[in-house]
Design a protein that fits this description.
single chain; 237 residues; mainly alpha; 5 helices; 3 strands
């Protein structure tokens, strides 16, 4: 294939991968909105309005775990569905598409936690300094990548800090990468079904579909010829 056609094919692949990444981020926004609408709140009693201190009511501390578990479920579904949808683009399968899906999922998990926190805050607004002895509904929140990376850095230098909810953002990219890996492993075509040759020249190669096995019946042998005789009916000497 000429160089200009190969360059056009590569440019088209890059455009499609960029569109896939934008679609993954949009799906992450939608997942964050769903989580923000479904995440439970935690009710606390204000004991110090100036410093923002409060006491969690009995039974309300479990809602933080429920919110994180719900975020994990939404991230899992988003990662799997976006990876499967991207894999359906048969003509663009390959390392470039896989890398785009994984990178977009890494960013999408942060977008999901950020936008989900905004939606949860819009649903349950409260005053910055509420009066003492009032019950306030605290919306759910996920720490995200910055807090997770900070925790990892502090853990490496030996500081004893508590792990927050930032590990939940690992679920979406993890399952997106797992879905792409499994899809590539179970695919038996040498070109992953793209119709492109495996050396990456961009030339389309036609692979005929497999035909069902049909056993071929052997033809019966013709009858054996009789002995050759001469005109008198005697075999030749």
């Amino acid at each position: 294939m000429p160089y200009d056609k190969r360059a056009t094919t590569r440019t088209r692949q890059v455009r499609v991968v960029v569109c896939v990444m934008v679609a993954v981020l949009a799906a992450s926004l939608l997942g964050g909105a769903v989580w923000g609408l479904l995440a439970p709140v935690e009710h606390v009693v204000v004991v110090d309005s100036a410093q923002g201190l409060g006491t969690v009511l009995s039974g309300e501390s479990a809602h933080e775990f429920d919110a994180v578990a719900l975020f994990v479920c939404v991230g899992l579904v988003t990662g799997l569905l976006t990876a499967i949808a991207a894999w359906r683009l048969r003509g663009f399968r390959g390392p470039l598409l896989a890398a785009g899906v994984i990178v977009a999922s890494l960013l999408g998990s942060q977008v999901m936690s950020w936008f989900g926190g905004l939606v949860a805050g819009w649903r349950h607004p409260h005053h910055a300094h509420p009066p003492v002895h009032t019950v306030v509904a605290l919306p759910a929140s996920i720490d995200g990548w910055p807090d997770l990376l900070r925790y990892i850095g502090e853990h490496l230098v030996g500081r004893g800090t508590e792990a927050g909810t930032g590990a939940a953002v690992l679920i979406q990219p993890l399952f997106a990468a797992l879905a792409v890996l499994v899809a590539a492993i179970v695919n038996t075509a040498p070109d992953l079904g793209t119709g492109l040759d495996h050396v990456g020249t961009g030339a389309f190669v036609y692979y005929p579909p497999p035909q069902p096995y049909q056993p071929q019946l052997r033809q019966p042998l013709p009858p054996a010829a009789g002995p050759v005789v001469d005109g008198a009916g005697q075999p030749p000497s």
